[in-house]
Amino acid sequence: MPRTPVLFVSHGSPMFALDPGTTGPALSAWVQAYAPAPAIQGIVIMSPHWMTHGIGVMSTPEPDTWHDFGGFTEALYQLQYPAKGDPELARRVQALLQAADVPCGEDPERPYDHGAWIPMRQMYPQADVPVVQLSLPAHVPTSVIYAMGQALAPLREQGILLIGSGGMTHNLRELRREAGPTEPYVTAFCGWVESTLQNRDLSAMLDYRARAPGAARAHPSDEHFLPIYFALGAAGWGPGSEVLPQYISHEVIYGSLSMDAFSLS
């Protein structure tokens, strides 16, 4: 079985489920070309909308679809994502994390939050691949999240797609509903990330808060950026590797919300 790629996706606003823009079709096309359902045995996805003290692993066999947001059109709350969970895959995830001295525990009741089901609905609309969510541990260094990805990298040899779901930028106070140009700090921040990834500069990425232009404005709180480290670790990206990002989307919505998505092989 060929080794699966790794993804980082920006899930944007919950309205991404109804208004896919250019990013939704781009993700769908990427899946059809590189990770179609028959070839993918399961998915492990990290979402910033499940933050825990310690690390949680979803072991729910039939997760509910959680509409964990408010104030949107009623049509959004009618959407469901009925993909099965995979308790056996959850056990493999726990075993790999524990073997890497990364403590974790299972959650047998966890539903899909919108950081998971909304991008999954764009990628696998038939909900025909089982999904296991992995929580984002709170108050840990970026290096710990990178190590989590490294620990789960062997799953790529078993047909498992590993995904970090977050946002390349995520400043909700600066969203602009009317049409207009992209905020300059968004362009600067996203450009720095892409350049740093191309240069395989792990030390700079791990210290993005101090080094990236506009970091504090792009991410007033950093939970939506942190899943990128899970993807980078899972892909083995860093100094000395041959791994480079292949961008799937560079879309910006609402003037300041970057929907950047890329794969790593």
Structure description:
This protein has 265 residues and is an alpha/beta fold. 33% of the residues lie in helices and 18% in strands. It has ten helices and ten strands. A six-stranded mixed sheet has the order 5-2-6-1-10-7, with helices on both faces. β8 and β9 form a beta hairpin. α5 crosses α10. The longest helix has 15 residues. The chain is globular. The model has no long low-confidence stretch (mean pLDDT 97).
**Major sheet: size, sense and barrel closure?**
6 strands, mixed
Rg from alpha-carbon coordinates: 17 Å
Helix fraction bin: 25-40%
Class computed from helices, strands and strand pairing: alpha/beta
Based on Cα principal axes, name the global outline: globular
Order of the strands making up the biggest sheet:
5-2-6-1-10-7
Strand fraction equals: 15-25%
Overall number of strands: 10
Q: What is the mean pLDDT? A: 97
Can you count the helices?
A: 10
Low-confidence stretches: none
Give the N-terminus to C-terminus distance in angstroms. Answer: 14 Å
Secondary-structure topology with pairs:
Elements: E1 6-10, H1 23-34, E2 42-52, E3 56-58, H2 74-77, H3 87-99, E4 105-107, H4 114-123, E5 131-137, H5 142-152, E6 160-166, H6 184-198, H7 202-206, H8 208-211, H9 215-218, H10 227-235, E7 246-249, E8 252-253, E9 257-258, E10 261-264
Parallel strand pairs: 1-6, 2-5, 2-6, 3-4
Antiparallel strand pairs: 1-10, 7-10, 8-9
Helix pairs in contact: 5-10
